TrEMBL record:
All residue ranges annotated as the Aminoglycoside phosphotransferase domain in the record: 26-260
GO molecular function: transferase activity
Pfam families recorded: APH
UniProt xrefs under SUPFAM superfamilies: Protein kinase-like (PK-like)
Tree of life domain: Bacteria
InterPro entries registered for this protein in UniProt: Aminoglycoside_PTrfase, Kinase-like_dom_sf, Pseudomonas-type_ThrB
Protein name: Aminoglycoside phosphotransferase
Source organism phylogeny: Bacteria, Bacillati, Bacillota, Clostridia, Lachnospirales
Amino acid sequence: MSAEMDKHILKEAAGAFATDGAAVSCERYGSGHINDTFRLICENRPYILQRMNTDIFQDPVSLMRNIEGVTTFLRQEVIKNSGDPDRETLNLIKTREGAPFYVDSRGNYWRMYLFIEGATCYNLVEKPEDFYQSGKAFGHFQRLLSQYPARELAETIPGFHDTPGRFRAFRKAVEEDICGRASEVQNEIRFAMDREQDMGLAMDMLAKGELPLRVTHNDTKLNNIMIDDKTGQAICIIDLDTVMPGLSIFDFGDSIRFGANTAQEDETDLSRVSLSIPLFEIYTRGFLEGCAGSLTGAEVKMLPQGSRLMTLECGIRFLTDYLSGDTYFKTAREKHNLDRCRTQFGLVADMEKKWGEMERIVEDVCKGLDKNKTKVKPG
């Protein structure tokens, strides 16, 4: 939109919501790349105003139904736990007609939240404590939503962590080889093919009822956590667009995939790629402390596997995209997706070498929590 149109549409959208006092100013806010986010200052309090990206999330009505249900439930849970419901969960502001979102005269979808004051999001893990706080926050998110009916949630990105489905797409890309690249990546193809049977492990357990369906966040990065400016403690999980039904071990595993890797996601020197055992340990401790006994024994036992599966899935997605002509992930150089794939597969290989250590860490953390009476559910 042009600047003039922006101003007009912003005024229309801001005026549609039931704010406390008249608008004073509205400025772009944050570093997000998907939605357009603004900080709206009103006479009595600030708000977050967002224009939703309906190119990526093509069913905004279902998405907002998810967010409305989850945030309402979270608010009730925070109140039950004597917390601050205005700071410890996102709070939707309804339109003046009582709707959870607004569609402007141009067809754009908007939503509004209370602005959480005295807290900041950080883009990078600067010290181990940050990763611990991240684990604790996402574990706490799991605990608060452990009784939420996950099956009522819509899939905002269908098949997002359907690991067998991702493998089928990869196999098809290999067979079609539309860019003639398969011959140069035979080692990577073989690496993935050798682990085909593993891709269905978690989904098979879900189908058999051995793993429960949970509310999952599906974007468990540090910058989706609000950190209190005074205490340094994580207080609120944000960016709920990808909240869907899923597996707790996948949220855990994706955090380990990008947070406990000793190298960047697109590192070309594979000797730098490894699983940081200290970071794996500190995140596991934070996550299980945050879960506070809400996970089943089967879920806890599968945490290392969740880490491996999410890393393997990500590597397969990068390889699939490379074979298909780099049409999904943005690339900055030739063979960028192949470099990303090799980094993920290198991390998988290192996890497999350190498998015993990963399992021991989970067991030891559980024993420590048991002593502090944070029990794990049977199962």
